[in-house]
């Protein structure tokens, strides 16, 4: 755990120095979601019905933007080799990377989702369910994205392969997250869908760092 917190602090310091990456992901999220009213029209009923799907899809695409550099920068300058040689478990390195990705990308997207939902005319009673689903969903996207980024590390066209690897794995996240908000819109309880998201998060929390750590060791060799 000491290695985990040390690497997490390092990643957060580096993220503060490169704040443009976080800003780019946040602006992409907002601008992409703002395009939908122009395409499907400003009717409140239509926008409100489609709002959960719009927000989740845009959040997924925005979360993918920084993943290409999650391990790439450390791979290029040799920092990744130094981290692996320091004795820190590879899974701890991957877990710290996933946590830093969520803190600098997933958390800002979560905070921006509420005003975006209001703009897209999502009913007020469904906004808490949307945010409750988006919280574990963004964590899952960070974990899945970290594992995917580690797997394609050093591969040709890794930036192209990464979305093709992560997007199919993220489909259950989108399904259950949107279903939770839709249930709240229809006056039903979102609890079953939120519990399924929590179960996915509980499974991914140990498995994704282990898979990413094994991929990092293979790439270093």
What does this structure look like?
The protein has 221 residues and is mainly α. It has one domain (2-220). The protein is built from ten helices and no strands. The protein has helices at 2-17, 19-40, 44-64, 72-77, 79-85, 90-119, 127-151, 158-169, 171-185, 191-220. The radius of gyration is 18 Å and the shape is elongated. The mean pLDDT is 87.
For this entry, give a set of tags.
221 residues, elongated, mainly alpha
In short:
This protein is mainly alpha-helical and 221 residues long.
Low-confidence stretches: none
Count helical runs. 10
What is the strand content? under 5%
The helix-strand sequence is HHHHHHHHHH
Number of strands: 0
Shape: elongated
Distance between the termini: 25 Å
How large, in whole angstroms, is the Cα Rg? Answer: 18 Å
Structural class: mainly alpha
* Average predicted confidence as pLDDT: 87
Question: How many domains, as an integer?
Answer: 1
Largest sheet: none
Fraction of residues in helix: over 70%
